[in-house]
Amino acid sequence: MATLTIDRVRKRYHHQEVLKGIDLDLNDGEFLVLLGPSGCGKSTLLNLIAGLDEITDGEIRIDGRVVNGVHPKDRDIAMVFQSYALYPTMSVARNIGFGLEMRKVPKAEREAAVRKVAALLQIEHLLERKPAQLSGGQRQRVAMGRALVRDPKVFLFDEPLSNLDARLRIDMRTEIKKLHQRLGSTIVYVTHDQIEAMTLATRIAIMKEGVVQQFAPPQEIYERPANMYVAGFVGSPPMNFLPAVVAVEKDRLGLFVKCEAHGAWSDVFLPLPPQVPVQLGNGLAEHVGREVVLGLRPEHITRAGSDLASGQVVVEASVGVLEPTGADTLAYIGLGGQDTVARVKPADAPRTGETASFALDLGSASLFEPKSGARI
Amino acid sequence: MSSSLSALPRTHTPGARALRIGLYLMLALFALYYITPLLVLVATAFKTPDEIRTGSLLSLPLAPTLDAWRTAWNQACIGADCRGLAPYFWNSVAIAVPGVLLSTALGALNGFALTKFRFRGANVVFGLMLFGSFLPFQLVLLPMAQTLGFLGMAGTTQGLVLVHVVYGLAFTTLFFRNYYVSLPDELVKAAIIDGAGFVQIFTRIILPMSPPIIVVTVIWQFTQIWNDFLFGASFAAGGAQPITVALNNLVNTTTGVKQYNVDMAGALIAGLPTLIVYVLAGRYFIRGLTAGSVKG
Domain A4-233 carries which CATH code? Predict the structure, then answer.
């Protein structure tokens, strides 16, 4: 268990900068998820923490000790790889104990440690088998056992679940979370799966092209995305982006948004909640008359009920395609000059082609600068 | 996959049948063409000189005898030396065994370093080594002779071992490099984090995964070194010559009546070890391949 500090870390390959100054600070026992599409530099960063690759510039500190130039085996870290990287010619027991064997831990002590970890992961009955005789989930457990047995300061996970089938992935995800809660270890976890990131992390760092876009707890990432990239990356279906114009009407600050009702598009004024919430940004007034992007998650567009919550505004919009998913039905409605996804209860689902009234929860909306994509 | 293909229903039209019969006839003809020299070789080696003179080339021996084998092994005269092929056979063993072991071991080490511990310029080094496998034997004769002379190893068995190791390295490195490039890099990364060094990773993790390619390399190198004539004839002096050169001398320089049965027996003795290596190692080769294919 330890703190981990990543301080202005840069990585250049030849003339291409892959990491452009990463700053992350982890407390003891935190579960950091590095989230991003392939090629965003998240795996490179993990390799730098592990010491498998050399830092071009900046500093990495584990528990306050600078580890630049420290050999991976002396960093007191353990890593779980995407392919599990089990040694195919060794038994499960030797696979788990190999790190201790290399560190010249006496045999009896080693065997006791292996047995303890095997019990923790419920793989005691597999200890004599070879990796080829294991299922995917069992290999995953052995790979974690190999990391756990050394009781390192920091655990590094490199997309550990992406080779498992969907069902097993969910089970293992829960197990990793349980394990983290039980051991309280510091973990850095790389994935491109936003659900994994949301469910596991204490904090998520969303990366794009070698830059951290936002570093925050999962709920904050979801509710207050720092920019349109983050907003579009997290959430399924993704956040709707509606072109809008800030305006004042009858002394109320609001947005003009294009809306299709009864077969015709018109500009509709959506008044923002009276006490414009802080999250919609201070000084929105100076944007009056300018174009902005209104970010609305599908669950913030529902059918209008008899009583409206504060911040909700009712609009009439025509309904296109309906996609029932079981728990909810996704309705594509004409809003913002495009198809916008609304998440409605199956019982409230409108019919295709009709114009229905929808409640927009502007209190939960995000506003973005159209050019830079930054949150206002 | 081949079984599912052959399980497909066949067409039974007369034309198809004729084609099939023609196919097997053709195959049988080729088989016969290839097997005939070996048949003549084996049959003649068991005949007496009289029977060779009177009988036909293709007939089987009437009274098979091992006389010719005995003569070829330890009585036949090679030049003025009448101790048979035996000393030269052991020369070849003394060249081939260390030659195969050394070139295979070094090739494995090279392949490992070139793929899993990549260093600056690894590709250039590999390219140059690859180039070595395209060099014809004849091209390296003169520089090799100079090198051996410089090292004081001209005409010795050790010198010949060195020649074969150096020339074979291009091939063994290529084999191992191509095998190791398909092993996941993450294995090595995991071992580094586990605290293993270069040598430990190689001996404890990579080598135990290598039997299939080791067998392939051993078969290749043994065949190359055992069957080599040019290097043996060029660099080995008199008593240090390998069996291929001795066989040539036996067949070409015997004075008096040509002893075909002794020549044939000698040729078979010279060819036997490679055959044995194929039969023995081939089994392990196939076992290694199937063991590797049972991945989950």
Answer: 3.40.50.300
